[in-house]
Amino acid sequence: MTMLLPQGALRSGARKLTSAPLSVKIGIAIIILYLLMALLGPVLSPYGEAEIVGAPFEPWSDRFWLGTDSLGRDMCTRLVFGARNTIGIALMTTLLAFSLGALTGLVAATFGGWTDQLLSRLVDVLMSIPQLIFALLLLSVFGTSISTLVIVIAVLDSTRVFRLTRAVAINVAVLDYVEAARVRGEGPLWIMGREILPNIAPTLIAEFGLRFCFVFLLISGLSFLGLGIQPPTADWGSMVRDSATLITYGDITPLFPAGAIALLSVAINLVVDWFLQWASGLKGD
Hints:
mainly alpha; 285 residues
């Protein structure tokens, strides 16, 4: 029999959230703040994303809260626009990676046999090559447009999603209620969508948060190396690279985009850890 969440799951989740540790509430508040900055920041920003508004590397002032970059663009404005670009592209990439990886993982676990062997060996080949090196190679060959960046990283990251989905789905696919569904003539799509997926959903949701962090950091790293999001589009990784020389002169401006990357990653991990404890029924401190 299908194990579905009860109708009161949302209310239960809300009660769990109110009793969550302070670290989790802080993590959720940080995530909400980032989302608001990504959605509303560009509207409220006084300057355009690529607008040159001053001299290069102007110091902090009432006009330029974080100074200007090497071209005279407002750093605070680009930090805000970077939230929309970096988070938006990372989220889109993670969604694509999960759609591809979770679907193929469910197919492999449900059908088994040669289907499972073929998909698993293909994933093994892709995972045998270091992800960053493979991404650098593919982006050098196919270009560094946003669409290419999203597709390349999504395909490479989907291999990790496939391995996890297949592992947890295989454990569910051999249970009695799944066998009963097969005996009564249910098709593979029905079994995947109604019997297996609802029972592995908490694990996949938690993995989605972790995958988002890895994709987010990978995109920022590629941008720092010059093969990620390209100028004049604002991105936190490229902002760190462009302003890194300021550290030599005692200017801490490059630490702001770097800190923004680190803070969001920590906040998501805090929430994901708590969600895993809640979904598994474990009690945290």
